[in-house]
Design a protein that fits this description.
Blueprint (H helix, E strand, L loop, with lengths): L4 E2 L1 H8 L3 H10 L10 E2 L7 H7 L3 H5 L7 E6 L5 H9 L1 E8 L2 H10 L5 E3 L15 E4 L22 H12 L3 E7 L9 H12 L2 E3 L3 E4 L10 E9 L20 H5 L19 H7 L13 H8 L47 H7 L12 H10 L3 H17 L1
Parallel strand pairs: 3-4, 3-6, 4-5, 6-7
Antiparallel strand pairs: 1-2, 7-10, 8-10, 9-10
Helix pairs in contact: 1-2, 5-14
Length: 402
């Protein structure tokens, strides 16, 4: 029997249920904890997410290697999370495009051999890239407000999806990988995604049904969700067989990210970071690990929340202190904004740059360029490296089959 134990909070994260619902399951006897309050994963097989972790093919998939050299071109490369993960999976980047000088400096500093092109993607020339295996990019989510008519490729001109599609159309890679926020699934009542599917079809590619992946299942200690789009050129469909990556057998927590252990051999190194004003620090000192504004005295709640206090919604990102025993909340581009606090679990300060990077599963030797705000932005916008690597291995297996 698998003796792995998880906490009630981790079970809630794994099955995407509110903690209050999981508590009801316990009180009704649907789930039965051990004497220490934890649960054997084996006793939770009724949940398909737990079954997938217990019966995972992760170890076999981790042995994936390319049958030959596979090349990649990346747009919107940012601080390098997606590119580094794909490199770890075996891809060789022949060009990376981004218009942010700090992101480009980060990519060049860490990988002097990469061909980093600092330019507006709208002016990028792809004529030199032939016989490329993979085009990737995390294009920003934008509306195509054309009242439901069937759009042509040119009709999306002016959006960054158009630029991603143009790169695919001009390079004609064997496969492509797009990533985006989960909200793209329902954006503009689903019309945005339908338009994307139409255009991909018009270009001669078949889109695998898009899927939202939860980073916690792929060795990332963070409750982050990303939508992935995988496309295959139609002339290769006959031999193409794509399978989404299997989950890892455990969920990593903030402690795994910041302390020496299974993820990193040492405690997180010190680094610069933002700080709180004395007034804000005084408020956050009252919040326990895993708590938020709701744990403050009523008078402090009203004073801190101001107009938000009487409005609906949980707003649990406000005055939020993280917990060692859970994955981090999704990182944003700043850990000290009032709506999206990411306070250290034991010290009353925002997470610093290196802590941010570890929660995104970057190696400690991957350095970030620019002022502190630019570093947070690069890390907060990145695809977690370990999630990108798991996706990359799935793409390598797809190309090996083709």
């Amino acid at each position: 029997m698998n003796n792995t134990q998880i906490t009630e909070a981790l079970l809630a994260d794994i099955v995407s249920a509110p903690k209050a619902v999981v508590e009801k399951w316990r009180l009704s006897g649907k789930i039965v904890p051990k004497a220490n309050g934890n649960y054997y994963m084996e006793s939770l097989r009724q949940f398909h997410q737990i079954r997938d972790m217990l019966d995972t093919n992760w170890d076999e998939e981790a042995k994936t290697t390319p049958d030959r050299r596979y090349t990649a071109v990346e747009l919107f490369a940012g601080g390098g999370g997606l590119a580094l993960g794909l490199e770890n999976a075996g891809f060789d980047h022949i060009a990376l495009f981004d218009n942010d000088k700090h992101s480009c400096a980060t990519l060049r500093d860490n990988r002097p051999n990469w061909n980093v092109i600092e330019a507006d993607v709208r002016e990028a020339d792809y004529s030199g890239y032939t016989d490329v295996d993979l085009v990737t990019g995390g294009f920003p989510c934008q509306s195509f407000s054309y009242s439901g008519k069937k759009l042509g490729f040119e009709d999306t001109r002016g959006t960054l999806f158009y630029e991603f599609a143009r790169a695919i159309n001009e390079i004609r890679p064997k496969i492509f990988l797009g990533e985006n926020v989960r909200g793209l699934m329902t954006h503009d009542g689903g019309k945005t995604l339908e338009t994307i599917k139409d255009i991909i079809s018009q270009m001669g590619y078949t889109l695998v049904e898009p899927r939202v992946l939860k980073a916690i299942f792929y060795q990332v200690p963070q409750k982050r969700e990303r939508l992935f789009l995988v496309g295959i050129r139609n002339d290769l469909l006959q031999t193409a067989n794509f399978a989404w990556p299997s989950p890892y057998r455990q969920v990593f927590t903030l402690k795994d990210a910041l302390k020496a252990g299974i993820m990193y051999p040492t405690d997180c190194p010190s680094s610069p970071g933002q700080s709180y004003s004395p007034a804000k620090q005084a408020v956050l000192m009252m919040v326990p690990p895993g708590g938020c504004w709701k744990d403050l005295p009523l008078a402090v709640q009203k004073s801190y929340m101001k107009g938000s206090f009487g409005q609906g919604g949980g707003k649990t990102g406000m005055a939020r202190r993280l917990s060692w025993s859970e994955p981090s909340l999704t990182l944003t581009t700043s850990p000290a904004q009032k709506q999206t606090e990411r306070c250290h679990p034991a010290e009353t300060r925002p997470l610093n740059v290196r802590e941010y990077a570890r929660i995104q599963s970057f190696p400690d030797e991957w350095s970030f360029s620019g002022p502190v705000g630019a570093r947070y932005k690069q890390i907060g916008n990145a695809v977690p490296v370990n999630l990108a690597a798991a996706m990359g291995r799935s793409l390598v297996r797809l190309l090996n089959g083709i």
